[in-house]
Amino acid sequence: MKIEIWSDIVCPFCYIGKRKLEKALAKFPNKEAIEIEWKSFQLNPEEKTNPNISTLENLANNKGWSMDQAREATKYVTEAAANEGLTFDFDKAVVANTLNGHRLIHFAQSVGKGSAMKERLLKAYFTDGLNVDDPHTLLKLAEEIGLDAEKTQEVLNSEQYLEEVNQDIYESRLVGVRGVPFFVLDRKYGISGAQPDEVFDETISKAWAEFTSKDSGLIVKGNEGDSCDIDGNC
């Protein structure tokens, strides 16, 4: 059974939601029969990469806040991440466009390493404070998870997988994605946002029980969970 996940590399709840899904799958008795497919989604396609400013500074500047106000605004998501064993450091996180990162995930996915690449990029952004739009950084991260350096360089030096990224974003509109993360199970059940653990547990079990049924229509489970949208709301 396939689980498709629309998310962005710089979306905090996408990282939290990834952990929640992983926890649910760890308990799921048929987890070996689950296929994960990462779908691209850009919260801010026009974002200009700027390694000289942190995400926290960028938030403060955009909102007209002090740095203390920006830290207070990110306190909830930082604590939510900590509850999932994640360390978020918005003082270190670098403002970056995610298009090249998404292309790299598609390349990694083509050789069975999509989840590993997604994880490494999320950690690079939220924890390590690395520029996830820098070609040298992307090459290094790709090598860390075992991708071929020469082939990775070819991808980064070209527009390979750009069409796939754009197709994902187009599909997100068809599915009705308004914010990310958005999980689609067997193209029938959807989980919007980083929902409570029990929503993931119940939805995976329900989808598994019915995944041979081809009834049309997407059923979104639960209320809107914690997510980020294209208006910059998280």
Can you offer a commentary on this structure?
- With 234 residues, this protein is of the alpha/beta class.
- The chain has a single domain (2-229), classed as Glutaredoxin (3-Layer(aba) Sandwich).
- Helix content is 48%, strand content 15%.
- The chain has helices at 12-27, 55-63, 67-73, 75-83, 99-110, 114-126, 135-144, 149-156, 162-175, 197-210, and strands at 2-7, 35-40, 50-54, 94-95, 179-180, 182-185, 189-192, 219-221, 228-229.
- Strands 2-1-6-7-8 form a 5-stranded mixed β-sheet, with helices on both faces.
- Helix 2 (55-63) packs across helix 3, helix 5 packs antiparallel against helix 6 (114-126) and helix 7 runs antiparallel to helix 8 (149-156).
- The longest helix is centred in the first third of the chain and has 16 residues, at 12-27.
- The two termini are 30 Å apart.
- 41% of the residues are buried.
- The model has no long low-confidence stretch (mean pLDDT 93).
In short:
This protein has helices spanning 12-27, 55-63, 67-73, 75-83, 99-110, 114-126, 135-144, 149-156, 162-175, 197-210, and strands at residues 2-7, 35-40, 50-54, 94-95, 179-180, 182-185, 189-192, 219-221, 228-229.
- Give the N-to-C terminal Cα separation: 30 Å
State the major sheet: 5 strands, mixed
The CATH architecture designation is 3-Layer(aba) Sandwich
Radius of gyration over C-alpha positions, nearest whole angstrom: 17 Å
Average pLDDT for all residues:
93
Neighbour order of strands in the largest sheet: 2-1-6-7-8
Report the CATH superfamily.
Glutaredoxin
Number of strands: 9
The structure class reads alpha/beta
Would you give the CATH topology? Answer: Glutaredoxin
Q: Give the ordered list of helices and strands.
A: EHEEHHHEHHHHHEEEHEE
Question: What is the approximate shape?
Answer: globular
Unreliable stretches: none
Strand content: 5-15%
Question: Could you say how many structural domains there are in total?
Answer: 1
- Give the proportion of residues in helices: 40-55%
